[in-house]
Amino acid sequence: MDIRHLQYFLEVARQRSFTKAAQSLFITQPTISKTIKGLEDELGVVLLDRIGKRIELTDAGRVIETQAQNIVKSFQNLSSELGDLMDLRKGHIRIGLPPMVGSSFFPMVIGEFHKEYPEVTLQLFEDGAKKVEIDVASGALDIGVVVLPTGSDIFDSFSFVKEKLNLLVHPEHPLAGRTRVALSELAEDAFILFQENFALHDRIIEECVRAGFQPRVVYESSQWDLISEMVAAKLGIALLPETICRDMDPRRVKVIPLTDPVIPWHLAMIWRKDRYLSFAAREWISFTQSMLRKSSQESGE
């Protein structure tokens, strides 16, 4: 048994599929099947229960999964620390970014970081903030950007954006001429929301319920620009952060401050407290924090 055997097993356990695990690891399915069979023979237990095309962990498999995670994590930490001791200013960082966050705040940061550390590669994963938080917690991502508050105390973080949500309506909407709108006034409107893996999806629904109504959701999307286009097409109303609203064409969409309540949109970068961070990841955090703070000061926020 070597560390790769455990890594292959963990990926099959995570994907619940030999095919998907092989694709994720960039190896052939026969190779991964043979490795798992060899691991079962060596340990003298069955690790995976193959039910048709589905794969489930046996009791022994669940025990091995827990121990293998600890072993692989320790091995990764050892490799990272040795690399740092050798002062290799190289590295690979897995970063989770919600789509509208990545396009609004990070292109310049990524460009400047690449100039400073050309041998550090950044692998960006675009997903909703809820999924990003889950993946940072599990170790699938090194660092992620989420909407505060997070649901866990296992993270270190720094906050870099504090904004609020605005209301988007079509110019012919009855509220289009207003200077501010209370959330309760939207009880009869059709809502266009982000998909369920976005933190704003649950946040908006929770605030609507507090305001006394269950929102009627007619469309969901992962893209803010598609949401604004649906508003422009008179398909419903939407609530989006101030940063996004600054790019709206007032001839097609009216942006109105939302009050009573004000729904905050606070962003933070998070990483696991108990996980070793490579030199590259620590530099990314420090570099990003400095650049975003500087950008905020220059914009007068």
UniProtKB/TrEMBL annotation:
<feature type="domain" description="HTH lysR-type">
    <location>
        <begin position="1"/>
        <end position="58"/>
    </location>
</feature>
<dbReference type="InterPro" id="IPR050950">
    <property type="entry name" value="HTH-type_LysR_regulators"/>
</dbReference>
<dbReference type="InterPro" id="IPR036390">
    <property type="entry name" value="WH_DNA-bd_sf"/>
</dbReference>
<dbReference type="InterPro" id="IPR005119">
    <property type="entry name" value="LysR_subst-bd"/>
</dbReference>
<dbReference type="Pfam" id="PF00126">
    <property type="entry name" value="HTH_1"/>
</dbReference>
<protein>
    <submittedName>
        <fullName>CidABC operon transcriptional activator CidR</fullName>
    </submittedName>
</protein>
<comment type="similarity">
    <text>Belongs to the LysR transcriptional regulatory family.</text>
</comment>
<dbReference type="Pfam" id="PF03466">
    <property type="entry name" value="LysR_substrate"/>
</dbReference>
<keyword id="KW-0804">Transcription</keyword>
<keyword id="KW-0238">DNA-binding</keyword>
<keyword id="KW-0805">Transcription regulation</keyword>
<dbReference type="InterPro" id="IPR036388">
    <property type="entry name" value="WH-like_DNA-bd_sf"/>
</dbReference>
<dbReference type="InterPro" id="IPR000847">
    <property type="entry name" value="LysR_HTH_N"/>
</dbReference>
